[in-house]
Amino acid sequence: MTVLAPIDELKTLVEPGKVLTDPTSLDTYGKDWTKHYPPAPTAIVFPKTIEQVQAIVLWANRHRIALVPSGGRTGLSAAAVAANGEVVVAFDYMNQVLDVNTVDRTVVCQPGVITEQLQHLAEEQGLYYPVDFASAGSSQIGGNIGTNAGGIKVIRYGMTRNWVAGLKVVTGKGDILELNKDLIKNATGYDLRQLFIGAEGTLGFVVEATMRLDRAPRNLTAMVLGTTDFDSIMPVLHAFQNKLDLTAFEFFSDKALAKILGRGDVPAPFETPCPFYVLLEFEAVTEEVLDDALGTFEHCIEQGWVLDGVMSQSEQQLQNLWKLREFISETIAHWTPYKNDISVTVSKVPAFLKDIDAIVGEKYPDFEVVWYGHIGDGNLHLNILKPENLSKDEFFAQCAVVNKWVFEIVQKYNGSISAEHGVGMTKRDYLEYSRSEAEIAYMKAVKAVFDPNGIMNPGKIFAVQ
Ligand code: MLT
Ligand code: ZN
Fold first, then answer.
1. Measured in angstroms, how far is the CA atom of residue 341 from the centroid of ligand 1?
2. Which ligand gives the minimal distance to the CA of 76?
3. I want to staple 424 with a disulfide (CB 3.0 to 4.6 A). Which of 78, 156, 229, 242 is the partner?
């Protein structure tokens, strides 16, 4: 009997040509959008069916070879980085929409379906897939589920978790499980579907997902307002929330705006310079709603919270206002930012902001700090830009020193060290600032149940046991 080397055996499990080992593919598929760890996978495998994924997982168990899932690779926590000779399982060829049910308002997706593809499909049906973020054009549904992706509409629609009706998964042991069967009501014990959402591929692979859709929003209208200072942002939120159902409430600093305007392809919202800006959005369904919005804007000016503002009057203007916020991440990527993605409950944001802002001013006096984020749901993105004269490694090392102070404040406010970007490798050493020792022990025990041989994305969320 001929005994095949593991990688040759792997090649027999998928279609011809669907295992790649050339340097370009290893580099491309071995990383996400983070720049912390150099990619070093052994091979990339592209399954086309659930049975092939199962065969790959069983093969990995037999040979004790670590697997890393790869979707759109837009992650920001190195959860999809293969830095230690792992085999990357890429879902690019499992990218079909399998069913659309307009009565249940659900879409059955393979994991490689691109977020935007689902959004467009929903639109064609007169419906709406509400989870949205700047990388929707390349991120995949499987990856969104793995990280419980959030984005710009969470204040109204919640995270990806809210939109997952059912899942098919291949566990780390190689079992195929069908979780929740797309039911709205299902009181039959543990909801294992929820465990796989946000698990970063550490328990198994999502191989099919039924996603829910909502009714399409009507006449979305955005305002961009310039606030007097950091402290004025939350009173503005509360004033608008008292009058309107907001679909978004985002913020960004003058530094973020300067970078966006520096691109030359996005118009300024208005001339008045302001230290911070908020972008809020609502459905302008009646004249009364518009009057409420304008009345609240005037109230915010009278209170001294807002210095200037603009409201979209057309779809084009709505898109242009959104570019001010949505282009930030991509634009500042040029400065290799050190990214923090922290959150607290909304009521704690004002005090939390004061403490964080003070520590940032004290610990990062020489670095350019860019603030933006989903402040309406309590999620702030704190980005430190790399000065040109520092190497990436030196810069990241200096930022890591400051983490302790930032995360101690997060802990003091019972917040999260990763609101929506996941833990991956970049935040795993700080998990105890958000999760208790006992909780982490339970999490590890859960992993051991689904993945007894530790082959599913090891070293992500927590260090290898
Ligand atoms: C965003 O809100 O723009 C995304 O989470 C990406 C980022 O934080 O850079
Ligand atoms: Zn974000």
1. 8
2. 1
3. 78
Say how many Å lie between the CA of residue 373 and the centre of ligand 1.
7
C-alpha to C-alpha distance for 30 and 4, rounded to whole angstroms = 24
Please tell me whether residues 363 and 433 are part of one structural domain.
yes
Q: For 312, what's the count of Cα atoms within 13 Å in the CB-facing half-sphere?
A: 24
Q: Which domain-ending residue is among 309, 329, 349?
A: 329
Q: What is the pLDDT of residues 318-366, one digit of tens each?
A: 999 999 999 999 999 999 999 999 999 999 999 999 999 999 999 988 8
pLDDT > 90: percent of the chain: 97
Question: Which residue among 139, 329, 332, 377 is best mutated to probe the pocket of ligand 1, counting the most ligand atoms within 8 A of its Cβ?
Answer: 329
Q: Are residues 346 and 386 in the same domain?
A: yes
- pLDDT tens for 392-437 read 999 999 999 999 999 999 999 999 999 999 999 999 999 999 999 9
Question: What is the 455 CA–ligand 2 centroid distance (Å)?
Answer: 30
Query: How many CB atoms within 10 Å of residue 402?
Result: 18
Same domain assignment for residues 54 and 104:
no
Give the domain range for residue 163: 97-215
Per DSSP (E only), the strands in 117-245 are 127-128, 164-171, 176-179, 204-212, 214-215, 220-227
Listed residues 69, 90, 111: the one ending a domain: 90
Residue 250 within any structural domain of the chain: yes
By C-alpha distance, which of 230, 232, 223, 229 is closest to 297? 223
Asked if the model's pLDDT at residue 465 lies above 70, the reply is no
CATH number for 125: 3.30.465.10
Same domain, yes or no: 81 and 136: no
pLDDT tens digits along 121-170: 999 999 999 999 999 999 999 999 999 999 999 999 999 999 999 999 99
Least distant ligand from the CA of 324: 1
Which phi and psi (to 5°) does residue 227 adopt? -100, 160
Looking at the structure, tell me whether residues 211 and 226 fall in a common domain: no
